[in-house]
Amino acid sequence: MTLPDGLPAEIDLTRPSAARVYDYFLGGAHNFEIDRHLAEQIASMTPNLADTMRAGRAFLRRAVRMLGQEGIDQFLDIGSGIPTVGNVHEVAQAINPTARIGYVDIDPVAVAHSRSILAGNEYAGVIHADLREPDRILAEAQQLGLIDLGRPVAILLAGVVHFIPDADRPAEILATLRAATVPGSYLVISHSTYEDQPPEMLDAQRLSARTSTEITLRSRAEVTGFFGDFTIVDPGVVHMSLWRPDAPSDVDDHPERLGAFGGVGRHDRSVG
Ligand SMILES: C[S@@+](CC[C@H](N)C(=O)[O-])C[C@H]1O[C@@H](n2cnc3c(N)ncnc32)[C@H](O)[C@@H]1O
Asked: How many angstroms separate the alpha carbon of residue 79 from the centre of ligand 1?
């Protein structure tokens, strides 16, 4: 198969990619027929999914804005996806133009597009890596000068931990990331759930097995556990649109339909 110009040769165009399916849902242009086909199939089973994805981006933007206002000036965004409007670096650098952002993704298309969008931005960079290698990510982000772990940092895990099955020990990955931070640091997580969900959600989850990354839905208690000893800030681990909405009208009568929790935790003391 011929690859479109500028895309890395290792891209597998015979299987849909989670990053490109996600890009399609967000109205982006970085996806192929095979991704659109799966996206339409998933959308027909779970009509709320596009809303969930948009709500996920909105949650991330609100969290980054809050952290920027708290003085956080370095962000490690793991599972950053294909950049669309309102990226983490745009939100963070609108508050502090010298805020540093390290984007990390496993998907070569997401990495290639991130690199081209960030060309010329001396305070942001991209790492092609797997969340399952947290030590490598932390080391590389420091080597590239993207983050300094001697100072408070925000680690963003938006819509990505559900791609780590229990067999790959997500709790240990999270513990490694938390342990690398100094007090004053933050952790942002959004994560799909089966709690309060209709059966179609589980069918869609099964469809996700056809992408290179299958989803593991988890309970609120499990998502809360990923924050470890960090202090979870108000309003807690909640359905994403309920996390500090910009306006009451941004929350509809059924926030649980989004099928994903969001939360922010702060490192208040040395934790392991
Ligand atoms: C649903 S998108 C979320 C994008 C962005 N964080 C957001 O909230 O808008 C999930 C991203 O995680 C990436 N991803 C999945 N598994 C990963 C892994 N093990 N390590 C790093 N990135 C991963 C996918 O390639 C995809 O770009």
From this structure: 3
Q: What is the pLDDT of residues 63-115, one digit of tens each?
A: 999 999 999 999 999 999 887 667 899 999 999 999 999 999 998 888 988 89
Q: Does any ligand 1 atom lie closer than 6 A to the CB of residue 79?
A: yes
Backbone Cα Rg of the chain: 17
Average pLDDT, integer, range 1-14: 58
Q: Element (H or E) spanning 125, and its range? A: strand 124-128
Residue 159 Cβ < 6 Å to ligand 1? yes
Atom from ligand 1 closest to the CA of residue 17: 25
User: Ligand 1 pocket, 56 CB below 6 A?
Assistant: yes
Cα 249 to Cα 251: distance, rounded to the nearest angstrom: 5
Q: Best substitution site from 62, 64, 106, 114 to test ligand 1's pocket, by max atoms within 8 Å of Cβ?
A: 106
Q: Give the mean pLDDT of 110-133.
A: 92
What b/e string do you get for 64-87 counting C-beta neighbours within 10 Å, with b at 16 or more?
bbbbbeeebbbbbbbbbbbbbeeb
The alpha carbon dihedral of 15, 43, 32, 105 has a sign of negative
Q: What is the pLDDT of residues 141-152, one digit of tens each?
A: 999 999 999 999
Is there an atom of ligand 1 within 6 Å of 60 CB?
yes
